[in-house]
Each structure stands twice: as C-alpha cells, then as structure tokens.
Amino acid sequence: MTQDTSWTILNIGYLSVTYLVFHYVTGVPFDLANNSGVYDRLTLWEQIDSGAQYTPAKKWLTTLPIVLFLLSTHYTNFNSHPAFFTLNLVALVLVGLAPKLPYFHRLRFKFFDAGTTPEPSAPPTPVEDMMSSGERHFGNFES
C-alpha cells in the first residue's frame, strides 16, 4: 500500500467514524446513569456543552479533521493520484465539517434506517414538547 493510499484511508476512516459517533447515533451510547430519556433524541454533538455553538470543545473537535486533511494533502503525491485530493476534500466538507454547522442542529439524515424508529417509553421532555410545537420559551414570563 502506498503512502498516498494509506493517508486517504486514514482520513476517510477518521471522518466516517467521527460522523457515526458524533452525528448519527442518538441518545447516550453508554448509559451508566439513568437520564430518563432526556438525551434520547440528541446526538453526541448536540449534547456537548448543552448544545451551545462555538465552544472551545467544539472548536477543537472541528479543527481535528481540518488538520488531518492538511496532513493527508501534504503527504500525498497528487501528480500520480489526483482523485485523492478530491476525495479527501469532498469527505472533509460533507462528512467532517457540514454536520457541525449550526444550520444542521437537530437535522437528521438517516441512511440505514429501515423505517420509523419506535418512540422511547419515557415521556417527552419539556424541551421536546416546545420544539415539536414550534415554540421556543426561555422562561415562564408572560408578555
């Protein structure tokens, strides 16, 4: 296996695994404590820092795929394999960076879902009730 191929496989593999862990799987993967179904509809990315955008943790997790892409482009000879650059760039943008944007917050793309998933047995949380009705309240204040 050439160095070009191994860097591309590393980049695509990292992006695939992190997409699966951070943006595809919902709920708490290792439920050691009883969370009463509060996080059942949230991905791990949406659970980090209570869903706040552009926190230091999320900035760090966003820079990692960019640095890996830059390393893979530095060590890949594009004269012999020009498609590797395109493959790495498209994977970075579509799989590594786009799901992390605020526009895709709570937006799901389920590729391997065989239909509707059963609802959890726990009652919906107040946050889910507000979001399903289209309301966003930040307190109990009446105008």
Largest sheet: none
Tally of contiguous helical segments: 5
- Gyration radius from CA atoms, angstroms: 19 Å
% residues in beta strands: under 5%
Tell me the span between the first and last alpha carbons. 67 Å
Quaternary assembly: single chain
Fold topology:
Blueprint: H1 3-24, H2 44-47, H3 56-74, H4 82-97, H5 126-132
Task: Explain what this protein looks like in three dimensions.
The protein has 143 residues and is mostly helical. It contains five helices and no strands. Mean pLDDT is 79; it is low at 135-143.
How would you briefly describe this protein structure?
With 143 residues, the chain is mainly α. The protein has helices at 3-24, 44-47, 56-74, 82-97, 126-132. 48% of the residues lie in helices and 0% in strands.
Task: For this entry, give a set of tags.
single chain, 143 residues, mainly alpha, 5 helices, 48% helix, disordered C terminus
